[in-house]
Amino acid sequence: MKCLAVLFMALVWVVSLLPGGALAKEGDLKEGRTLYLKHCKICHGQEGKGDGYALFNPPVADLTVSTIQNKSDKELWESIHMGVSNTSMGMWRFVLSDEEISAVLGYVRSLAAGP
Ligand code: HEC
């Protein structure tokens, strides 16, 4: 009986190791997409091409281009966290938690145009 319990625990442990990471990642991307559509799409557009709201000066960034995608995660994270001064890109730290910013950044990464 005791032996069975140990076996069961081992099985639970192995199973939790296997698909866990992948699932968590998919969850983040899904959360990031939800957040993006709620907060960012209005300016950056459905696909991030900067075609949401076109009347800003300076214009909304096209998030799919390499000039944006080549920036580091830290740089982009801070742009979302702190905003970009003198533009309409706001300080999302008042709206989104650190985890939510990371999730939405993950989604922004997924918008990158192919090579
Ligand atoms: C009110 C319009 C508006 C909304 C809403 C908005 N942005 Fe922006 N965003 C901008 C503008 C304008 C720029 C370009 C700033 C510049 O010229 O550098 C920008 C730039 C960016 C950049 C590039 C920053 C860099 O370092 O070059 C990222 C990444 C970004 N936005 C992500 C987001 C995310 C994620 C959201 C939602 C949480 C969001 N934006 C919501 C207007 C907006």
Outline of this structure?
This protein has 115 residues and is mainly alpha-helical. It has six helices and no strands.
Structure in words:
By secondary structure, the protein is mostly helical. It has a single domain (24-110), classed as Cytochrome Bc1 Complex, Chain D, domain 2, CATH 1.10.760.10. The protein has helices at 2-17, 20-39, 41-44, 66-69, 73-82, 98-110. Mean pLDDT is 85; it is low at 18-23. Helices cover 58% and strands 0% of the residues. Heme C (HEC) is lined by residues 39-40, 42-44, 56, 58, 60-61, 63, 68, 71, 75-76, 79-80, 84, 87-89, 92, 104, 108.
Main attributes of the structure:
single chain; 115 residues; mainly alpha; Cytochrome Bc1 Complex, Chain D, domain 2; 6 helices; elongated; binds heme C
CATH topology: Cytochrome Bc1 Complex, Chain D, domain 2
The helix fraction, in percent, is 55-70%
Name the hetero compounds present. heme C
Strand content: under 5%
The DSSP helix count reads 6
Domains (count)? 1
Number of strands: 0
CATH class equals Mainly Alpha
Alpha-beta classification: mainly alpha
Order of helices and strands: HHHHHH
The largest pleated sheet is described as: none
Choose one word for the global shape.
elongated
N-to-C span: 57 Å
Low-confidence stretches: 18-23
Overall residue-averaged pLDDT value: 85
CATH superfamily grouping: Cytochrome c-like domain
* CATH architecture heading: Orthogonal Bundle
Return Rg in Å.
Answer: 19 Å
